[in-house]
Specification:
It is a single chain. This protein is of the alpha+beta class. It contains four helices and six strands; from the N terminus they run βααβααββββ. It has one domain: Winged helix-like DNA-binding domain superfamily/Winged helix DNA-binding domain (Arc Repressor Mutant, subunit A). The chain is about 35% helix and about 30% strand. The chain has a three-stranded antiparallel β-sheet with strand order 1-6-5. The N and C termini lie far apart (about 35 Å).
């Protein structure tokens, strides 16, 4: 569930919470998250910056997209070429433990969000 005014997304399903934690516990995945905070990057750029094989970067990126940490966009480089790039607008991820269970609140910077990010080279 996402609160449109604040940009907060709450995950309550135990399976989804576990998948999120599994995805972000890996140091290489956290490196990808750090690198995509300031700019959108392709898998190749991320593999170079994070010092990992491109295939590893793709695997970790796919998992981070699946759990909702990264967003995928298209970077147009020419009339016939384009690449997928990845970024996020997450400000914080908070764990909430109550008598009824565990939930995770992902706070996003609503001011930085756009419907489609395009960049031209």
């Amino acid at each position: 569930m996402t609160d449109q005014a604040t940009g907060d997304r709450t995950i309550r399903d135990e399976t989804d919470v576990n998948q999120l934690f599994e995805a972000i516990r890996d140091p290489a995945s956290r490196a990808i998250i750090r690198e995509t905070r300031s700019e959108a990057l392709t898998a190749k750029e991320l593999s170079q910056r994070c010092d990992m094989a491109t295939s590893t970067a793709y695997r970790k990126i796919e998992r981070l997209v699946d759990v909702g940490v990264l967003s995928e966009h298209v970077r147009f480089t020419s009339k016939t070429r384009h690449a997928h790039e990845y970024t996020h607008d997450i400000d914080s991820i908070e764990l909430d433990v109550t008598n009824t269970g565990i939930s995770v609140v992902i706070s996003e910077d609503v001011a930085e969000q756009t419907d489609l990010r395009l960049s031209a080279d």
